[in-house]
Write a structure and sequence with these properties.
Keywords: DNA-binding
Organism: Phocaeicola vulgatus
Strand order of the largest sheet: 1-2
Strand content: 5-15%
Order of helices and strands: HHHEEHHHH
Largest sheet: 2 strands, antiparallel
Number of strands: 2
GO molecular function: DNA binding; DNA-binding transcription factor activity
Shape: elongated
Distance between the termini: 32 Å
CATH class: Mainly Alpha
CATH topology: Arc Repressor Mutant, subunit A
Radius of gyration: 18 Å
GO cellular component, one term: cytosol
Protein name: Rrf2 family transcriptional regulator
Number of domains: 1
CATH superfamily: Winged helix-like DNA-binding domain superfamily/Winged helix DNA-binding domain
């Protein structure tokens, strides 16, 4: 369900939480190396997070890189996934495939309703988890950078 840039962005956020707590700007190659990712695959996710205001970027200076723009306990996983993936929606089959013969009504289609309910539950669960909690599952021994 999630695209690779979204997966990379979620993984990178764990290290960016460490960077926030330690006042360290992390660049894309450092993040990619830590998680054995391709830096070219990670970069679009970092750009999307900057555009969404979740990350700040710093060019030049002694330490160029990225840092969270707000405390990690204030950023939800839902915000991150929406920034990377867009909004979750389930459209009726007639909306998506205009030529299909479907007798369902958009508001009462049982199939669409099941998926809408699942997406609502996913949104709720993602909004209940902060980046702080997400990063708590990782050990940062050795001081990071």
């Amino acid at each position: 369900m999630l695209t690779n840039p979204t997966r990379y962005g979620l993984i990178a956020c764990r290290y960016l939480v460490w960077g926030w707590h330690n006042g360290v700007w992390l660049n894309a190659p450092e993040i990619a190396e830590r998680y054995r990712m391709n830096v070219r695959a990670l970069s679009p996710a970092l750009r999307r997070l900057v555009l969404a205001g979740i990350l700040r970027s710093q060019c030049g200076g002694t330490r160029p890189g990225f840092m969270l723009s707000r405390p990690p306990e204030e950023v939800t996983m839902l915000e991150v996934v929406r920034a990377l993936e867009g909004n979750f929606r389930m459209d009726c089959c007639r909306t998506v495939l205009s030529s299909v013969r479907c007798s369902c009504e958009t508001e009462c289609c049982l199939v669409c309703g099941v998926f809408r309910d699942m997406l609502d539950e996913l949104r709720r669960r993602l909004s209940d988890v902060s980046l702080e909690e997400h990063a708590a599952t990782e050990e940062f021994s050795g001081g990071g950078v």
